[in-house]
């Protein structure tokens, strides 16, 4: 635990799960298609809820969704009643159906020779966008690029991929660096984490 360092305002908390997510994952570039599918799924689950709620249930989500193996998840349509009965996860049928649908789209991409990693990162030319925000309040909820990506993702069959979910995903996956410039993670990322 790095208690003597400055973090983004939203991560200045005693909550270890939130601190660990901020310190080790959020904004750091991910090129693993399974991990990217997990992040997209968690952002879908987070819509309308607190991120803390999702983090608290992340282990249960991993268990319910075979560690976010999209090859397995694409075949889970018949397991929706079982998922809806699982009190350890967020039981929102629309979100569960979207995650299963998205796994099918990602599997289809893979069948056609394109990884989910390559699909997502091509939108930013394979390069992380470096933002320079001094305060968390300056960070947008979405932007024009996320709106464009959202439109393309929906066209390509993705569900629950609105501009806010897409922008949150971009932040989580490190497609954009939205850490505050005074945050120690921002400095690590810019230096080439």
Automatic annotation (TrEMBL):
InterPro entries: Adenine_glyco (IPR005019), DNA-3mA_glycosylase (IPR052891), DNA_glycosylase (IPR011257). The keyword Plastid does not apply. GO terms for biological process: base-excision repair. It comes from the Bacteria. Gene3D superfamilies: Hypothetical protein, domain 2. Zn(2+) binds at residues 8, 22, 179, 183. It holds the Pfam family Adenine_glyco. Keywords: Metal-binding, Zinc. GO terms for molecular function: DNA-3-methyladenine glycosylase activity; metal ion binding. Coiled coil: none annotated. The keyword Translocase does not apply. This is DNA-3-methyladenine glycosylase 1. It comes from Lentilactobacillus kisonensis DSM 19906 = JCM 15041. The lineage of its organism: Bacteria, Bacillati, Bacillota, Bacilli, Lactobacillales.
């Amino acid at each position: 635990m790095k208690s003597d360092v400055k973090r983004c305002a939203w991560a200045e908390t005693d909550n270890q799960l939130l601190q660990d997510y901020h310190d080790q994952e959020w904004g750091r570039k991910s090129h693993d298609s399974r991990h990217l599918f997990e992040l997209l799924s968690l952002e879908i689950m987070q819509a309308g809820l607190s991120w803390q709620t999702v983090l608290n249930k992340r282990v249960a989500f991993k268990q319910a969704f075979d560690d976010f193996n999209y090859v397995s998840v694409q075949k889970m349509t018949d397991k929706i009643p079982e998922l809806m009965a699982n009190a350890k996860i967020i039981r929102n049928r629309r979100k569960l159906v979207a995650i299963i649908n998205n796994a099918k789209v990602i599997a289809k991409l893979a069948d056609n020779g394109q990884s989910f990693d390559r699909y997502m990162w091509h939108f930013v030319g394979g390069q992380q966008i470096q933002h320079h925000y001094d305060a968390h309040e300056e960070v947008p909820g979405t932007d024009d690029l996320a709106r464009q990506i959202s439109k393309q993702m929906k066209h390509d069959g993705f569900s629950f991929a609105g501009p806010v979910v897409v922008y949150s995903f971009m932040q989580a996956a490190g497609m954009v660096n939205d850490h505050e410039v005074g945050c120690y993670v921002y400095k690590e990322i810019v230096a080439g984490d």
